[in-house]
């Protein structure tokens, strides 16, 4: 009897029995642990889980969540199994016809060896933590050891409570049921686990559209469940300032929110930070400056904003004052900017617990500053100065005098040092977040000596591929696909066209749909990224992790979950234990079952995580593979490595 | 004071006051009525709405829904206003700096003329329907007249109750509030409205993933709210058969469902049909045959399914037995197929009220039939016969003998007559649904004499652009964007590459992301489609309407709303009153405000409709336009018409 048929008729219990016979394991946690060794003596029954460990509040509460989750008795929805055998292809008409699958529905009731306590009994969970005081900060030890013995005891050892929390998450994913009544772990198991990268996160933009705290909390739950540890909060942008400022002179900042209901009070912020911490997730705030600034500032003092009232001006690209609507940069030449910043920055920084504060610094548009009379005066008075000199003034006036007084370590977008039109000299202890040009920019930053967080738009941008959001965009008004004639061939010859998302030729009919970073990044795309390619071991250490970015031009509470999940889980595994198997080959195809299962669990947790496939593909492992050949990823790596080295 | 600033600080009441001064109207219903004439004598106060009209249950209940909705007191979130004036671009450094907007926050309290009853009073809604008995079927009169007089009386006239329901929907969208307490219609108004097309719908696929009835009902509400009148239900496909069959010999069909919880009982179906009818929405069922068939059939009698156990075989394209996993066609050569179909088809048809039944007929793969011994025998015994002859046997054995006995009119995918590899002669009274090759196929079908429903994948497919769903797909493993060298230029020269979504060259970096119908169809794309281009008036009449298609490979209850809405609203207006203004120019940009507002109302109705833009763009009309020039759509039409006529 084929698994596919059993599954399709909903006999999951049967499937599990089948699977047990083959010795395979159904409950493979995501991210895949670095070391996981299943024994073969048979099931460990799980009854009530009883905690024995340090009286640490974070730990005890996390254990309670784990135990409650497990009690709901999860029946696996997806599991890994080998590519099925297929009948031979009929080569000419009267040839051997492939046999049909046996669909008799018989249940094979092999009795299995079962270990551990009887149902209703208690499984002791021994939790040992070396240092219960270690703070949740960048670089804290997150390793853990989880051992499930034949007598049903569960032993967890970790250096810190943050490692122990990860052990609980793993435990949540290996205790399963086959009928919704019993609970078991498939085999005794030993797991030794430690993340490859220390910085693993998702960036949430709450400025383009507001997202309520309750939805952000759900994200935190999902981050923790996938062992991601950073909630990078892009709080403000030119479109809106939703963050409450209590300083008596600057309460008007939230007049830059979309409405009085779309504001994060300071109580909200503290609540989110506390909730995240309880889940082992760090909240890194970002106030994007000096570009991407308008709302809020404009209400407090309009003089702080350069080009705030300009037309962002795509009609004449040479006149553009912004990369997107609405324009606005903080006026670097206006002293009031620093006065206000110097007073609100400590207040904002005080709301957060993390050592790291992100101060933006992406996409400074020189044209914007042409709208500032003060800046034009400065140019007039200082012949020979450049936009880079202007950017340097920003750095000199902010990094030491303001930022470092309240934030232990800074993080910036790579533009601060790499953006051709306008950049500056930045201290080498600033963490650089790379979003452009894939490994080329990562290399450039590493060579300059920076620690790097990878958010390459070609792999990790979750917003791409949904078309543009700008209105009055006639590129969509392409009524027919031009036939492949000489004209079109010429168009393709034009290199500029290929690389220009504003090209009408490539907007529709297989093109980018006016999404500048199209196409949509699928979970396979995200997982495939070898972002340290070409770095030596020493250089690779400068890459401290990665983040997916959820830019919110077309995202709010209605579709946040579905855009982030389960794709971020592919990133989670990539950053935790990598994307390769013990042979060094890409294990993307093996991840299929894990991420399908993880998605079902996210839905169970209350998130609207997107389905990745027809449920048929979940219930029938590998039957939705594009190629029967299971080595296509390894082959494609080999071919590309060769081609790239030849460049 | 600029509207943008008022809006950004949340003073919607202020914005409305501003707007009233300019004489513009905020509450523009979607779809835009064919004729709408606003007067200028001022607000009509709205109190309790009291129904005076026929005692028809559908009508009275619909009125009650409308009155309840209005009572919630909607404050508009979006409105149309002209492109703002912008300061002059500073051409060199010491030049005139544009003035900054006035942000003094003063409220202009102009007293307005107000008509109608005082607050708390009753507004009489006179509803006159000529024929309360007209059934909800294709072609039923849906026109209505809605008149709001200065004394606050609302007069609705319609030929049928289905037209009156549309009048209610319009009424829902023109009664607004500016403070959440009062209620008014901005001006006296007269609306004469009638749809351009009789068939206006969305296709829902519930086979690739199951979607619960409660979610489908929410879709019905949104369809009705946008005056779409067809819920095309693609119930079954090769991956799953979720529909309960009660015939004693064939109860095993639902063993082809994903689980016992993922089944539509016949009670569910009747409930949905009734719910839809109460909302003026027709449910057209589709059982996709003879291709796209496997699950369900395989459980009842495996011999009915050809190639059900074959590998779908993209490794060797010549061997492919399916366009997607999993394979399966009904075996045309097996008599048992017709025996079963003849018994279940009347049962299924009996669950629905609509005259039209869709019997599929898309994507017949000749290779699939090579896996059927009976079909191979038939080929052997009948030298010279073709796959088309095989398809014709299907038609001869089903259309008259089975389908027409239970369904008054049939609908099929265009493949039945246009698919090159395998098609048949089909009676001319069958409605053809066109999904391929844009207007070329529409023309071909019209020339053959068929009525056509337009679902062109290049414009109306809602699933496109989210990447492929197949696993083991190494096309995503493209680590770097090849530099534009000779090799790549040559690749672009290859026409085949351009048109092949399986091309690795164009999967990533601006390519299609392995989505065969990429890119994502934005609302502007959907709305722009001139699907009767090139047809004369007589031919154009054969186009009876259109449908958006929500194929569900990557859709279920978690993300159904967000994928369909508000994009389907762009289709709704296109099919109701077209995409052009009184001058004949495309009014896509004008639709912006309507569709933004409509989206907010959908969210209020309880749907997770996607945000289309940063809220900034909603609150600041035209500030997110790509071009300042408001005639770019008209210009692009002109250019394309010229180019196309020259082809």
From TrEMBL, chains A, B:
Residues 1-19 form the signal peptide. Keywords: Glycoprotein, Glycosidase, Hydrolase, Signal. The active site is at residue 363. The keyword Signal applies. It catalyses: Hydrolysis of terminal non-reducing N-acetyl-D-hexosamine residues in N-acetyl-beta-D-hexosaminides. This is Beta-hexosaminidase. InterPro entries: Beta_hexosaminidase_sua/sub, GH, Glyco_hydro_20_cat, Hex-like_dom2, HEX_eukaryotic_N. It is an enzyme of class 3 (hydrolase). GO terms for molecular function: beta-N-acetylglucosaminidase activity. SUPFAM superfamilies: (Trans)glycosidases, beta-N-acetylhexosaminidase-like domain. Residues 83-106 are annotated as: Disordered. Belongs to the glycosyl hydrolase 20 family. Residues 197-578 form the Glycoside hydrolase family 20 catalytic domain. Its EC number is 3.2.1.52. Residues 29-174 form the Beta-hexosaminidase eukaryotic type N-terminal domain. It holds the Pfam family Glycohydro_20b2. GO terms for cellular component: membrane. It comes from the Eukaryota. The keyword Hydrolase applies. GO terms for biological process: carbohydrate metabolic process; glycosaminoglycan metabolic process.
């Amino acid at each position: 009897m084929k698994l596919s048929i059993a599954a399709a008729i909903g006999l999951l219990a049967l499937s599990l029995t089948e699977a047990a016979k083959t010795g395979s394991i159904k409950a493979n946690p995501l991210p895949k642990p670095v070391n996981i060794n299943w024994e073969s003596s048979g099931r460990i029954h799980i009854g009530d889980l009883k905690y024995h460990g340090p009286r640490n509040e974070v730990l005890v509460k996390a254990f309670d969540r784990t135990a409650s989750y497990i009690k709901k008795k999860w029946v696996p929805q997806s599991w890994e199994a080998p590519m099925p055998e297929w009948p031979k292809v009929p080569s000419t008409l009267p040839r051997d016809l492939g046999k049909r699958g046996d669909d008799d529905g018989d249940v094979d009731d092999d009795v299995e060896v079962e270990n551990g306590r009887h149902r209703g009994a208690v499984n002791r969970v021994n939790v040992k933590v070396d240092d219960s005081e270690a703070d949740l900060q960048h670089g804290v030890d997150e390793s853990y050891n989880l051992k499930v013995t034949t007598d049903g005891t569960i032993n967890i050892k970790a250096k810190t409570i943050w490692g122990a929390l990860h052990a609980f998450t793993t435990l949540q994913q290996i205790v399963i049921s086959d009928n919704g009544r019993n609970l078991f772990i498939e085999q005794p198991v030993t797991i030794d686990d430690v993340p490859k990268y220390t910085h693993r996160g998702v960036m949430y933009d709450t400025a383009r559209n507001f997202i309520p705290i309750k939805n952000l909390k759900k994200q935190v739950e999902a981050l923790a469940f996938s062992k991601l540890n950073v909630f990078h909060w892009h709080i403000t942008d030119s479109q809106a300032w939703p963050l409450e400022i209590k300083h008596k002179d600057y309460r008007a900042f939230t007049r830059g929110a979309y409405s009085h209901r779309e504001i994060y009070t300071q109580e909200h912020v503290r609540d989110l930070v506390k909730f995240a911490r309880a889940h082992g997730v760090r909240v890194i705030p970002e106030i994007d400056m000096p570009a991407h600034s308008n709302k809020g500032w404009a209400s407090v003092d309009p003089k702080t904003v350069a080009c705030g009232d300009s037309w962002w001006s795509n009609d004449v690209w040479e006149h553009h004052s912004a990369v997107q609507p609405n324009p606005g940069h903080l006026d670097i030449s206006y002293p009031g900017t620093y006065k206000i910043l110097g007073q609100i920055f400590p207040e904002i920084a005080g709301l957060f617990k993390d050592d790291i504060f992100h101060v933006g610094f992406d996409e400074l548009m020189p044209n914007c500053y042409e709208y500032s009379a003060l800046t034009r005066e400065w140019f007039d008075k200082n012949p020979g100065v450049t936009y880079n000199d202007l950017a340097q003034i920003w750095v000199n006036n902010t990094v030491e005098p303001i930022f470092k007084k309240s934030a232990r370590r800074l993080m910036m977008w790579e533009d601060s040092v790499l953006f051709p039109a306008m950049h500056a000299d930045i201290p080498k202890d600033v963490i650089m977040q790379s979003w452009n040009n894939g490994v080329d920019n990562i290399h450039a930053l590493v060579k300059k000596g920076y620690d790097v967080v990878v958010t390459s738009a070609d792999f990790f941008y979750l917003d791409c591929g949904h078309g543009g959001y700008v209105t009055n965009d006639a590129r969509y008004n392409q009524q027919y696909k031009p036939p492949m004639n000489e004209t079109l061939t010429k168009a393709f010859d034009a290199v500029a066209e290929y690389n220009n998302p504003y090209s009408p030729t490539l907007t529709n009919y297989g093109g980018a749909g006016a999404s500048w970073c199209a196409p949509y990044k699928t979970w396979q795309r995200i997982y495939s990224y070898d972002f340290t390619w070409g770095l030596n071991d020493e250089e690779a250490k400068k890459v401290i992790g990665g983040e997916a970015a959820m830019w919110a031009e077309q995202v709010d509470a209605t579709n946040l979950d579905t855009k982030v999940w389960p794709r971020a889980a592919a990133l989670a595994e990539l950053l935790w234990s990598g994307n390769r198997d013990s042979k060094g080959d890409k294990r993307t195809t093996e991840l299929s079952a894990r991420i399908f299962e993880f998605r079902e669990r996210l839905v169970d947790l209350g998130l609207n995580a997107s389905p990745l496939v027809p449920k048929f593909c979940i219930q029938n492992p590998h039957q939705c593979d594009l190629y029967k050949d299971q080595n296509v990823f390894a082959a494609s790596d080999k071919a590309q490595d060769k081609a790239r080295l030849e460049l």
